[in-house]
Write a structure and sequence with these properties.
This protein is mostly beta strands. The protein has 2 helices and 9 strands, in the order E-H-E-E-E-E-H-E-E-E-E. The protein has a single domain, classed as TolA/TonB C-terminal domain. The longest helix is centred in the last third of the chain and has 9 residues. It starts with 36 loop residues before the first strand and ends with a strand.
Length: 163
Amino acid sequence: MKRSLLAVASALLALAATPHGQTPRAYDIGNGVTSPKVIKIVDPIYTTRAQVAKLTGEVHVRAVVATDGTLINVRLDKSCLGRTEITVPVPDPISHSVIRPSSSFPCVDPPAETTTGVVPPDESLGLHQAALDAARQWLFQPGTRNGAPVAVNVELILEFRLK
């Protein structure tokens, strides 16, 4: 069983705390603000409990790429997880293309206490926390504004797929 990973940067509203306790502006991508570029991706650990339960889907994480390229203010945004049966793709006799089963699930907002970056035990069987832990290890070339590095809001989508 393997996992795949997809990262998507999008405009989000959030503020980032700096080590000095200041709260600089975190910019949205666009209007002269360039998107950060991923340098290092760390795959989340697909917990054994989640694999056995056939829990798959996506975990959406909001964060701010700081001017040093690290992620700060990492928090759970949405959970799009569900239990699925592993099915084999079948040929469509009419179009001769392959029909693949859908594995998308409705997204739900996490409880308020999970947006702090610490996820209590829940129905995700450890996938929420695994996504947050992995995201914190990602590294980026920071986004820029007027040629200077700036903090930029991003959304990461971490996928958990059984294969």
